[in-house]
Structure formats: C-alpha cells, structure tokens
C-alpha cells in the first residue's frame, strides 16, 4: 500500500481532474485508517505528543511495529515529529486528522446498540 501512496506533496496523480485526484487521495487517507494499530496510534496522539516507546505501551504493540506504522503515517503526512536530544516525539500533523478519527469512532459507536459513550449531542441551534 505505501509504495503507491500519493499523499506526499511531491507526487501528482497524473491524468485525473482535480476532483478525481482529491477522491483518490481521500481513499488513501481512509486506507491509512483501515489498520487497527494505526488507528490506535492516532487515538493515543489526540492527547498530545508521545515517543515511540510510550506509544507502543499504549497500543500494546512492540516499539518496532509501532515505528513501522509511524513511518507510514509520517509519509502520509498524518503525524509529524519533534526531536529532543535522542528522543523523537510524534504528534498529529493537523486537527483534521484528529477530527476524522473522532468522527470514525462516533460512527462506530452509532452502529452499536445503546447510546454512544463518547458522542456529544449537539442541538440544532449549536450547529
């Protein structure tokens, strides 16, 4: 999947109109969310930046596995890094990523019976 990733700014989808390009890129965004470990990493980063070892502990995977997923997320420009000495901290690259994942979790909650745990109901006036 990553070999074909076109979300980096240096690559253009050739032969497609602008809307078609955006659709193709949106498919790639959602494909990045299709992995449970990557989704858990993004959920963990909603609270702020974390180093690989902390992320590995939070998501219950090995640091090497988490590093591989972070590399894909970084290539997709969904996470960015900050170095502090020898430690590298990862954070979400934008609030858009945070919102997409939050909305995906809300949607998943709506498929379950009962009231969603994390969903905040909005009145018509508040929208």
From TrEMBL:
Q: Coiled-coil segments, which residues?
A: none
Q: Which InterPro entries match?
A: ArsR-like_HTH, HTH_ArsR_DNA-bd_dom, Metal_resp_trans_reg, WH-like_DNA-bd_sf, WH_DNA-bd_sf
Molecular function GO terms recorded: DNA binding; DNA-binding transcription factor activity
Keywords for this protein:
DNA-binding, Transcription, Transcription regulation
Every copy of the HTH arsR-type domain together lies at 18-112
Q: What is this protein called?
A: Transcriptional regulator, ArsR family
């Amino acid at each position: 999947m990553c070999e074909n990733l076109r979300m980096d700014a240096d690559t253009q989808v050739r032969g497609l109109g602008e809307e078609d390009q955006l659709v193709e890129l949106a498919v790639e965004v959602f494909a990045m969310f299709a992995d449970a470990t990557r989704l858990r990493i993004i959920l963990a980063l909603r609270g702020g930046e974390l180093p690989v070892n902390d992320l590995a502990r939070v998501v219950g995977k090995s640091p090497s596995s988490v590093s591989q997923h972070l590399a894909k997320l970084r290539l997709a420009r969904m996470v960015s890094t900050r170095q502090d000495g020898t430690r590298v901290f990862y954070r979400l690259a934008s609030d858009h990523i945070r919102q997409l994942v939050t909305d995906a979790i809300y949607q998943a909650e709506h498929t379950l019976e009962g009231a969603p745990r994390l969903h905040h109901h909005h009145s018509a006036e508040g929208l």
